[in-house]
Amino acid sequence: MPIDRRGFVAGSVGLVASAVGAVSETQAKPTAAITSQQHRRIATEEAWSFPAHLDALAALAQGNWHNLDVEVINPAGAQATESLYVNLMDTHGRLREMDRLGIDVQILSLTAPGVQLLRPDRAVALAELANDRLAEVVRSAPDRFGGLASFAPQDPAAAAREMERAVRKLGLNGFIVNSHTDNEYLDQQKFWPILEAAEALDRPLYIHPRCPADTMAAPFRGTRLQSAIWGFAVETGTHLMRMITAGVFDRFPKLQVIIGHMGENIPFHLWRSDHWFERRRAAYGSSLTPSEVMKRNILITTSGVEHGPALRYAIEVLGEDRIMWAIDYPYEAMEPSVSFMNKVEISEKQRAAIFHGTAQRAFHLPLPH
Predict the structure, then answer these.
(1) Is residue 11 part of a domain?
(2) Is residue 210 in a domain?
(3) Could you give the CA distance from residue 130 to residue 302 in angstroms, rounded to a whole number?
(4) pTM above 0.85, yes or no
(5) Cβ 368 vs Cβ 334: under 8 Å
(6) Cis peptide bond prior to 219, omega within 30° of 0
(7) Catalytic site positions
(8) What is the pLDDT of residues 316-338, one digit of tens each?
């Protein structure tokens, strides 16, 4: 059935299988061996889905709405046989692989684009259902899984209510949003009920990537650059920099936001961002430099980046207490990520913080028995 563009908010997707088994630093040069049980391992950006969600996304692929995200949606929904989609729904197989590799905990979240392509009423209902299903998964293995709650930014008031239910009733550990919604970003005041709820509930908000918004899509169209190879970082990094320079973190000083993929390129541009922020400070709404916000309000994860120089640089500019380990499963394989973090050349204090210490604190996880 054709899909009216006005009937749905602008979409995203993370449902593109990326190459797994990235080459780690340990394959390039030998490092000191790290025993497999030396550190607890908490993986913090791990995708999950369930049939009703995949089927809701598949319906969008049958219409005539051709933004960058909709173009890459899995049209088979829950009937897809590719391992990526099977692994999104298979928590038993996930646990077996976690056991094999010594992964203690995965923080699960509804895979992109979440509910953000749907009409507001459908999005609100599907977010509630997703959180109920995710809470069931967490309860089935409470020592092994945590969860980030979905919500519908299309209805900020309903989103705030669902965020409170997800923490207070369902016991979930934080929230996830897939960057822009209807080509709009969280620095806009209409979305502030969402930020108020996250701050009041003292739970982090993970801004997960999606393809660039329609308003910046043209250079990406037809290039295959819209997803993990480049577009995800451009989109998500732009989103966070909008929030930083608009003064969101002056208004919400205790808000904690997470971005993945070693900071979506922001740490590597931070000196220049500060430099030009200071030269044009009056043009921005923030009293804080980008680096001040990054060190106070932002956490980054290692998801999908198994590169020692990048990790060491992030530690140098942000500190290990602002970095968390993540795999990005099933879009990335578990084993290379574990091997990389076991052996990358950093101190054991840094390794412990990144593997588990920062996540333990950020997500209010119980200590192991």
Answers:
(1) no
(2) yes
(3) 25
(4) yes
(5) no
(6) no
(7) 328
(8) 999 999 999 999 999 999 999 99
